[in-house]
């Protein structure tokens, strides 16, 4: 906005041109929530195709409109704030196998001033030693990649054999493939990183903004680069992960519930109807009988 104002201030304006138009704010359309989007695809954008692609994926409660806003840029105007927030929460999105970068748009800022250089990913951290598979370690590794999105429900960070962390990443830099960590006893360990819902990345340089054939490294090499020199590969794209499928369960101690639940009926009531504490032998026998039941329940959860 400042740039534009500076340009007009240089010119001598006529009296008619200088006349203020006041109170435009009153005529602003209310109840609109706008996301600006930049499509990394190099193909010409057809907004009808874009609407057809996103409508079944987003399943919004209310409608939205799409406006062209420049080369490979669109504005998505939502009637519902929740719908707009859900789209951002479920990033990253792709169209034509290329990332689409979204950001909230306050229309008092010129669109050209928006910098589309971040995307939010679920990053999978593989090869962590089991005793380091916890939320603090995962977030610590995530902080070296970008800005970690702190979650209320941290169980979403459980991936079973790996940890997951949600990170806002600067995509003007190549994606990180790994991290070296120093374990408590001083030994060096490597963890590998995979990115969920990443559709394409340049295998020569690791940027998500272009394909292999458009890479400057490749073009400058005039065909002398061979595939074995590629520093990235399809292995950096995490396979489809279904967070609703349980990969982790925390099991409390059997007697924790009994001790904490004051209303739980004791195991034995004496003849006078007065509650007494069950003898240890009875509790042990009961625990033994329940063991098989617990394992069956655990097995069901992992199915
Ligand atoms: Zn490249």
Helix content: 25-40%
Structural class: alpha+beta
N→C terminal distance:
56 Å
Overall residue-averaged pLDDT value = 82
CA gyration radius, whole angstroms: 28 Å
Tell me the total number of β-strands.
12
Give the SSE order as H and E letters. HHEHEEHEEEHEEEEHHEEH
Bound molecules: zinc ion
Number of domains: 3
Strand content: 15-25%
H/I helix tally:
8
How does the overall form come out from the CA principal axes? globular
Largest sheet: 5 strands, antiparallel
Give me the side-by-side strand order of the main sheet. 2-3-1-5-4
Give start-end ranges of low-pLDDT stretches: 266-303
Domain DUF4283: 32-108
Domain Zinc knuckle CX2CX4HX4C: 169-216
Pfam families: DUF4283, zf-CCHC_4
Organism: Quercus lobata
Set down the secondary structure blueprint.
Blueprint: H1 2-10, H2 15-18, E1 33-39, H3 47-58, E2 64-68, E3 73-78, H4 81-89, E4 93-95, E5 98-104, E6 118-126, H5 135-143, E7 147-148, E8 163-170, E9 178-182, E10 188-195, H6 216-221, H7 254-260, E11 268-269, E12 275-276, H8 280-302
Antiparallel strand pairs: 1-3, 1-5, 2-3, 4-5, 6-8, 6-10, 7-8, 9-10, 11-12
Bound molecules: zinc ion.
